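Q: what sequence does this backbone want?
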């Protein structure tokens, strides 16, 4: 049965509507808390399956989070979600999976969030999507599988993350990178986290040093400052 979890009276321009579909209660509760507390959503509706969406409001949500059922065939289930109306669709999966990312990307999803992600990373990813961006933790792998050439296929970083990495190599702060690349601060922070993860580094300096190493398929040339 569908459930409305929060409704707040605010001005129409700031109104945020989110729908979550998951047959796992703990997942529903965790996502609901993230969205209610972190995004300050006005209306959050939850349902155990896609069929229950018909019991929700007919309004198109700003975000539709869909938890891939463990028993479902990923290709069939993801394809069936393309008819669901939402400004942004995000696929929730157990862990990073290139196949799931590729299927979601081709089906028009704005992002893929593994359940292993930290609360802070989940919130940052949701903000990036709401701002019109995309979030795929293994997006470089997706680009490679789709046949694209260049830096994304040669390194674990997306082209935008490579730009951020170059800026880190120049010693720029997150705010300076945001201004230089015309990105939101939330997007910069998310990309920096992805860079640290890809490098297996504890800080920005270590990440820059490691990703200069040719043995790691460095996207930075040794001449960068």
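A:
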């Amino acid at each position: 049965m569908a459930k409305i979890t929060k409704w707040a009276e605010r001005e129409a321009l700031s109104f945020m509507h989110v729908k979550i579909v998951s047959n796992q209660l703990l997942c529903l509760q965790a996502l609901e808390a993230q969205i209610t507390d972190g995004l300050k959503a006005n209306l959050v509706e939850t349902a155990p399956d896609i069929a229950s969406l018909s019991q929700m409001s007919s309004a198109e949500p700003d975000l539709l989070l869909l938890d891939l059922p463990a028993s479902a065939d990923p290709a069939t289930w993801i394809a069936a979600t393309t008819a669901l109306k939402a400004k942004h669709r995000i696929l929730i999966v157990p862990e990073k999976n290139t196949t799931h990312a590729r299927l979601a990307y081709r089906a028009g999803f704005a992002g893929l969030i593994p359940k292993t992600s930290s609360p802070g990373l989940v919130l940052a990813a949701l903000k990036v999507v709401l701002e019109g961006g995309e979030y795929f933790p293994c997006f470089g792998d997706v680009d490679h599988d789709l046949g694209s050439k260049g830096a994304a296929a040669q390194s674990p970083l997306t082209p935008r993350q490579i730009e951020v990495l170059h800026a880190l190599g120049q010693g720029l702060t997150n705010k300076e990178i945001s201004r230089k690349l015309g990105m939101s601060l939330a997007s910069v922070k998310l990309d920096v986290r992805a860079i640290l993860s890809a490098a297996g580094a504890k800080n920005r300096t270590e990440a820059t040093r490691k990703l200069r190493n040719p043995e790691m398929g460095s996207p930075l040339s040794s001449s960068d400052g």
